């Protein structure tokens, strides 16, 4: 008889320890409060005594459901790694999680406000199911405790999106790293070209009106072909350089090439000026000095050193 009572005591103790193992909530209060924190109604819940709750809370405008409870692990207050309330629509299967604030002692608080829920859940007229989920790492058994339901008295219907986002190919993205150069209107370019040509025509007319002696040109070219080629070539080179700068050349390249053409043009101009003086006066170059055919006048040498070795 004594052995029978001992066996019953051992079985009851093991069952009690098994029932108290894992996570549980005690001293739970579900209060329906307003914006001024005035309580409209309060319901008590305890996972160790009540498996679940089927109470429905009717939440109006400006009201919320405040939950206060204590988390316990193996019968002692503790802080779990995860503690939140699942708000689920049983018709569509949509759900959202509201995270609870838990202290080290296990005391927790969470507010369920329909205004903070996603639009698909806030616009549901049917009651939403509340489930408290508590879990932590280790061998402790997690807890899923149904707190009841909430019904929104004033549901807000979500606005339909005009163009809902869909996964699919998007239009190709094109990027222009450097836009094309904007050219002026053609009529303006033709006007400037005509002005340049008119300047050359005016130069030719001026030469004709001033009785320019073009008969000396063959004699000058024959007397100094190198200097003439240098001078005339530098002029043509400058015109070509301006054209290249307008089309594709950079400023640095233009300055370097222009400096070289300037030196060539200066040397050719000095030699050309001296040759023109000789051709007009019928003189010959004799070493470092120039002597006249008519009166043998001595003419001092020019400053260009290249003519001494010509």
Describe the model.
- The N terminus and C terminus are likely disordered.
- With 310 residues, the chain is of the alpha+beta class.
- Strand 13 and strand 14 form a beta hairpin.
- The chain is rod-shaped.
- The chain folds into two domains: 132 residues, Immunoglobulin-like, CATH 2.60.40; 102 residues, no CATH class.
- It has six helices and 14 strands.
- Strands 1, 2, 4, 5, 8 and 9 form a six-stranded antiparallel sheet that branches.
- Helix 4 crosses helix 6.
Radius of gyration: 52 Å
Percent of sequence in beta strands:
25-35%
Low-confidence spans: pLDDT under 50, at least 5 residues? 1-20, 284-310
**Globular, elongated, flat, extended or rod-shaped: what is the shape?**
rod-shaped
Q: What's the CATH first level of the largest domain?
A: Mainly Beta
- SSE topology string: HEEEEEEEEEHEEHHHHEEE
InterPro entries: Ribophorin_II_C, Swp1
Keywords: Endoplasmic reticulum, Membrane, Signal, Transmembrane, Transmembrane helix
Protein name: Ribophorin II C-terminal domain-containing protein
GO biological process, one term: protein N-linked glycosylation
Briefly say what this structure is.
The chain is α+β, with helices and mostly antiparallel strands and 310 residues long. It is 35% helix and 26% strand.
Sequence-ordered SSE layout with sheet pairings:
Layout: H1 2-20, E1 23-33, E2 39-45, E3 56-59, E4 64-73, E5 76-77, E6 82-88, E7 95-99, E8 101-102, E9 107-112, H2 119-122, E10 128-135, E11 143-152, H3 186-209, H4 216-223, H5 225-247, H6 251-281, E12 283-286, E13 289-292, E14 298-299
Parallel strand pairs: 3-11
Antiparallel strand pairs: 1-2, 1-4, 4-5, 4-9, 6-7, 6-10, 8-9, 10-11, 12-13, 13-14
Helix pairs in contact: 4-5, 4-6, 5-6
């Amino acid at each position: 008889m004594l052995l029978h009572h001992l066996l019953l005591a051992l079985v009851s103790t093991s069952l009690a320890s098994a029932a108290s193992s894992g996570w549980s909530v005690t001293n739970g209060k579900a209060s329906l409060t307003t914006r001024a924190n005035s309580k409209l109604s309060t319901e008590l819940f305890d996972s160790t005594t009540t498996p679940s709750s089927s109470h429905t809370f009717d939440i109006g405008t400006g009201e919320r459901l405040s939950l206060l409870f204590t988390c316990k692990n193996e019968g002692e207050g503790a802080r779990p790694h995860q503690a939140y309330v699942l708000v689920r629509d049983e018709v569509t299967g949509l759900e959202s999680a509201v995270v609870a604030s838990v202290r080290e002692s296990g005391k927790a608080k969470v507010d369920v406000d329909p205004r903070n829920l996603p639009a698909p859940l806030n616009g549901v007229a049917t009651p939403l199911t509340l489930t408290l989920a508590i879990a932590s790492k280790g061998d402790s058994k997690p807890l899923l405790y149904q707190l009841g339901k909430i019904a929104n008295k004033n549901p807000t219907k979500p606005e339909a999106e005009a163009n809902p986002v869909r996964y699919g190919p998007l239009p190709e993205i094109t990027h222009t790293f450097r836009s094309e150069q904007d050219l002026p209107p053609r009529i303006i370019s033709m006007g400037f070209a005509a002005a340049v040509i008119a300047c050359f025509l005016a130069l030719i007319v001026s030469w004709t009106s001033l009785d320019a002696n073009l008969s000396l040109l063959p004699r000058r070219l024959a007397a100094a072909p190198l200097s003439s080629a240098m001078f005339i070539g530098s002029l043509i080179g400058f015109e070509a350089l301006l054209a290249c700068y307008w089309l594709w050349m950079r400023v640095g390249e233009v300055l370097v090439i222009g400096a070289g053409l300037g030196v060539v043009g200066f040397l050719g101009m000095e030699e050309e000026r001296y040759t023109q003086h000789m051709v007009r006066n019928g003189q010959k170059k004799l070493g470092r000095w120039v002597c006249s055919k008519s009166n043998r006048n001595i003419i001092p040498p020019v400053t260009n050193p290249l003519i001494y070795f010509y």
